[in-house]
Automatic annotation (TrEMBL):
<dbReference type="InterPro" id="IPR050214">
    <property type="entry name" value="Cys_Synth/Cystath_Beta-Synth"/>
</dbReference>
<feature type="domain" description="Rhodanese">
    <location>
        <begin position="329"/>
        <end position="438"/>
    </location>
</feature>
<dbReference type="Pfam" id="PF00291">
    <property type="entry name" value="PALP"/>
</dbReference>
<dbReference type="InterPro" id="IPR001763">
    <property type="entry name" value="Rhodanese-like_dom"/>
</dbReference>
<dbReference type="Pfam" id="PF00581">
    <property type="entry name" value="Rhodanese"/>
</dbReference>
<protein>
    <recommendedName>
        <fullName>Rhodanese domain-containing protein</fullName>
    </recommendedName>
</protein>
<dbReference type="InterPro" id="IPR036052">
    <property type="entry name" value="TrpB-like_PALP_sf"/>
</dbReference>
<dbReference type="InterPro" id="IPR001926">
    <property type="entry name" value="TrpB-like_PALP"/>
</dbReference>
<dbReference type="InterPro" id="IPR036873">
    <property type="entry name" value="Rhodanese-like_dom_sf"/>
</dbReference>
Length: 443
């Protein structure tokens, strides 16, 4: 349509804007082709009832959107609708509307390409089924196939009255389309949105990644064949070898409609989700560099020590230095010990603060989804209040194992705190020969 418009001088260097009422393939293609041709910005006129996912898809491809209220699918002749608005705006100076609902190039492209390609692959075709929206596919493809296979059947498939499938239309909304689709079709079927999505889902699970309008076309074909079978006329459709050769159009994909499948279809159509307790827990990112070895943790906490490596044995540090170890923690560092108060009292890293988290014990929470969900919530409630005072500090979290501390890191990092987990837990600190402190017992 754009090439022919350029050849006719309807689009030239003075054209500032192209508009089309479409929320799918047509306007996306117009936007891409216009950019390739060095043409102007393309705007999509769409219903305000278009799904947010579809709007995002259109904007992803660089289209600006103009929304229209009223029915989601309008007749071209409706003066209150977006189709009429696009036609009128296309008459403004510097604007152009390709007009897919009336443009002969719509169906001519299918006469030139789609029809011959189908016939080349299926020369004995008996039935061609296509969803009808603008009717360009059926008008062009169907007319070509009739010219080479006069006895074949063109089956127009429409959305059931009062229902909606993206792209196709109920038959009453196609009556005023200018393309001569009524002269081409031999039979018609009307398909519900539920059946359209269900058949599309079945096709996708068989490896054909096609959307709801494709499901509508195939379901219409199924319905027609079943009717012919019940009426005893099925044999009249057979080719000379006894087979019935059918083709149906798949012109959409499922991805932008995923949420609609779950709305339209029964829950039993979809496999279950296990470990659902994690749907609203443990939601924050993790970093692979957040787990520090005892050596790296020591350097983070005690830069004033002046050692390149921590001592191999505690005896290498004299008693006088041990007594002042705690104040030498870097001013911009802090330590939270998440173990029980009893274990913290028995032995802990000097300068650490005990924040008791008991719900996971010494177990790996990543091996138990419920435990992880509970731990994450407890850590969030316990650690987040401390975050505002830690924005300028590097925080080391210590627990019985690195996994518990790792979850805590994720919680604090979400709050902007530079948090790390002690690899291997508190026992690894002791095994490295690093200093520990105790809390004196009171008598």
């Amino acid at each position: 349509m754009l090439i022919r418009a350029s050849e006719a001088g309807k689009i030239d260097d003075s054209t500032e804007r192209i508009v089309e009422y479409s929320s799918g393939n047509t306007v996306i293609s117009l936007g891409i082709v216009s950019k390739i041709m060095g043409g102007p910005q393309v705007g999509a006129y769409i219903s305000n009832k278009t799904s947010p996912q579809k709007m995002e898809l259109l904007r992803f491809f660089g289209l600006d959107l103009t929304l229209f209220g009223g029915p989601a699918q309008v007749e071209p002749a409706d003066v209150n609708g977006g189709i009429h608005a696009a036609i009128q705006d296309g008459m403004r100076p510097g604007w152009y509307n390709p007009g897919q609902y009336s443009s002969p190039q719509n169906s001519e492209a299918h006469v030139r390409w789609t029809g011959p390609q189908i016939h080349a692959q299926l020369p004995k075709i008996n039935i061609f089924a296509a969803a009808v929206g603008t009717s360009g596919t059926m008008t062009g493809t169907g007319s070509y196939l009739k010219s080479v296979r006069p006895d074949m059947i063109n089956l127009g498939v429409f959305t059931a009255p009062g229902d909606r499938v993206p792209g196709p239309r109920p038959i009453d909304l196609v009556q005023t389309v200018d393309l001569p689709w009524q002269e081409v079709i031999d039979a018609s079927e009307h398909v519900s949105s539920k059946d359209s999505y269900r058949v599309s889902l079945e096709l996708c699970r068989q490896g054909l990644l096609v959307g709801p309008s494709s499901g509508l076309s195939l379901m219409g074909l199924y319905q027609y064949l079943e009717k012919m079978k019940k009426s005893g006329e099925l044999d009249s459709l057979r080719a000379d070898d006894g087979n019935i050769y059918c083709a149906f159009i798949c012109c959409d994909q499922p991805y932008q409609y995923i949420s609609d499948y779950f709305t339209k279809l029964e829950p039993s159509c979809f496999p279950p989700i296990y470990n659902t307790e994690l749907l609203d827990r443990d939601l924050y990112p993790y970093g692979v560099d957040w787990i520090l070895s005892p050596t790296d943790a020591f350097r983070l906490l005690y830069p004033a020590h002046g050692l390149q490596t921590p001592p191999a044995e505690p005896t290498e540090l004299d008693d006088e230095f041990k007594s002042v170890r705690e104040p030498l923690i870097h001013a911009h560092a802090a330590i939270f010990d998440l173990r029980s108060q009893t274990d913290y009292t028995s032995a802990h890293v000097p300068g650490s603060k005990n924040v008791e988290i008991l719900c996971a014990g010494n177990k790996n929470p990543f091996k138990n989804p419920k435990m992880l969900a509970d731990l994450w919530e407890v850590l969030r409630q316990t650690l987040v209040p401390h975050a505002k005072d830690m924005s300028d500090k590097s925080v080391l979290l210590i627990s019985y194992n690195e996994e518990i501390a790792y979850v805590g890191c994720s919680v604090l990092r979400k709050e902007g705190v530079k948090a790390f987990a002690l690899g291997g837990g508190f026992d690894k600190w002791k095994e490295a020969g690093l200093d520990v402190a105790t809390v004196p017992m009171r008598h």
